[in-house]
Design brief:
The protein has 301 residues and is of the alpha+beta class. The chain has three domains: 94 residues, Rossmann fold, CATH 3.40.50; 63 residues, Dna Ligase, domain 1 (2-Layer Sandwich); 105 residues, ATP-grasp fold, B domain (D-amino Acid Aminotransferase, Chain A, domain 1, 2-Layer Sandwich), CATH 3.30.470.20. It is built from nine helices and 16 strands. The strands form four sheets. Strands 14-13-12-15-16 form a five-stranded antiparallel β-sheet, sandwiched between helices. Strands 2-1-6-7 form a four-stranded parallel β-sheet, with helices on both faces. The model has no long low-confidence stretch (mean pLDDT 90).
Amino acid sequence: MKIAMLCVNPNVYSHRRLIEAAEARGHQLDHIHTLRVIINVTSHKPFAYYDGAGLRGYDAVIPRIGASVTFYGLAVLRQFEMMGIYPLNESVAIGRSRDKLRCMQLLSRRGIGLPVTCFAHGPKKAAEVVQIAGGAPCVIKLLEGTQGIGVVLAETPKSAQSVIEAFAGAKINILVQEFIKESGGKDIRCFVIGDRVIAAIQRKGAKGDFRSNLHRGGSASLIRITPQERTSAVGAARALGLNVCGVDMLRSHHGPVVIEVNSSPGLEGIEEATGTDIAGQIIEFLETNAKVGKTKTRGQG
């Protein structure tokens, strides 16, 4: 197979592992710098150019689109889809996962367990929103934040109201979520490929930090998940239309609650903690499923 990988930096661990795994299985995997692609939107002849040459002959594309380049990255990925190249994750599905509010709404519609999540326009309803979310402490998140950036724990009703008003004053959209105290600063990352959870870890935040992101100093360990947690992870991936994703959840008194679905999950922490060859299984998924023009969503929003 000839595979394109859309990313900015090919030297990060996850991207190196995907290149190694593809080459080990006899495939060609080319790094395509997302921001250097030019798309030609022409009726019946969609095309893309990279560094002066046309992009031809690819069987599949692996989108590793950073949050800061989501808009342009999804435009490029859509162009690949229009050219009939099979996407590991489709543009529509990635767009759903990057909008936290839309993601929560889609999961809610499928009956996936969630923390109480509130959204309102402007700061005037701040006190009411905090009350609906279960009161303080509560978690306040930017709609488009990633990797723990833009996530604040408000300890008191007054501090929650102040944070909400500050974000609203800067014209930034936020969510207010129930704080799951019983999770104890730990969450579970389930790595889903296709219809299976192939690996799971428990992540614990650094001392004094309620966020459990590994790159922020958190630690990871192997964990055995329950059947309900496995069902929730696979259900979340299906709800968004993602073939490959990391589903983050907390253990609450009323069962697992999904807090985020990551459409470009990192491989380093979970491969090291579990010893699972996740990169190899991603390439194997492409071998089985990559077909010209095959998509789940068919461009539906």
